[in-house]
Please model this.
Amino acid sequence: MISLLGKPIKEKIVDDIRSRISKGQMINAYIISNPNSFEASSYKKLISDLLTKLGIKVTDSQISSQEEAEEAISEANKDKLASVFICRPLMVEDENRIIELVPASADADMLTSVNSGRLYKGDMNYLTGTSSSVEAIIDYYNIPVQGRKVFIIGRSISVGLPIGLMMLKKNGMVTYAHSKISLDDLRQEARKTDILVLASGKRGLIRKEDINPRGIVIDCGYQEDGKGDLGFDPECQMFTPVPGGVGPITISLLILNAFKLKFGE
Amino acid sequence: MISLLGKPIKEKIVDDIRSRISKGQMINAYIISNPNSFEASSYKKLISDLLTKLGIKVTDSQISSQEEAEEAISEANKDKLASVFICRPLMVEDENRIIELVPASADADMLTSVNSGRLYKGDMNYLTGTSSSVEAIIDYYNIPVQGRKVFIIGRSISVGLPIGLMMLKKNGMVTYAHSKISLDDLRQEARKTDILVLASGKRGLIRKEDINPRGIVIDCGYQEDGKGDLGFDPECQMFTPVPGGVGPITISLLILNAFKLKFGE
Model:
């Protein structure tokens, strides 16, 4: 059993950001959050801390209504160096409308229609934070995907869907499941997959006996108890532990992706 | 064995377009094609014929270079009622660049990043022609998708990928395969799927014995011999024949979708 750790990858990414900054590249970060959104609070702290540590200017917009959120984006849009980080869920009337107000080049979360469409059409430079973290793990640890069965539980546009597109681009046979699939079908599929990706935010779908001993498990979850969607260390060939696997990479990649959006590869 | 015929659906769609026109809605069609592109020629004829029959003005731009194609789009962009139909493959240097020059509201093919992204983010109004045809068949014949296994062979952004998104939205468990998957894995998967979708443009991947007798087969192919990707009538619960299944619906839906893009639902 090999533990796929995120730390060495995170360190490389942070070095990459520092090297960009030393070459004169810079962004101004605008963090939009709703203080009532408990789910987004740990994410917000992590991103603020790393941005500050890197010497990036942070404008912290705490909003509690649609109007305030739209105003915060308008403010950011006056700044050519702006990169917007939206801490979801924003708990406002129409979150997607706020996302779509962000110009593509400032859309660090990669959730505008334009950037989503670029990804969908095959450009992996537009992967979201979590999905690019999973790609980084696949690449760093040389995990073969071509011709392999990849089973993804979850279909959100920020996690499950883009991970599937990335795995498809790497020539995997990709299956998406979700909460409307029977537990029996879901577990049967899990047992025979080569790569199992947990991306639903739900605990208890997959039990110890549903893990393929010759498979690889990638857990994108982070639950209140500090563990992932799985909640246990699986007996299999390789797995990403929670904490320590996917999570540590995501925040640094979000910032690196923001630089790439502004300044290119 | 039930044959899922496209004709009754096509007739309803043509009626819908005529009713929109009688209410005063109108588009001006700009067809961009390369006369050297043999693959696109039958498509071009079908779309021209139906547009003309419906009394829609057609500007026929035959191009043979990147510059000519870009010029044709610039010309269309001067017309507020323009809907652009690109006959792919255009056989030019950068087809995607040409697609991206089309404004979202004139993008009848639904292949710009903006419209692709809207689809990817969950809005099924932005399905491509073929994928909305498959949706029309599913809906018209009340084919249950929720909780069912859907197996899609093909991952193009015009056919395979959007069909999968649509099936996922209908709560199916969706698996994508393609040419890099071994024939053994592909056929094994086909045999146990509830809904098999052929969308690769390749003959010979699936044989008679790979068809699930209790399944449904949807064939989006159209090959030189006038038959689909399958090439035979499968022994199963229901199937779309070629010719007569998906094909007849696509052209009429492309035109209806162009009206919807301009004037809304």
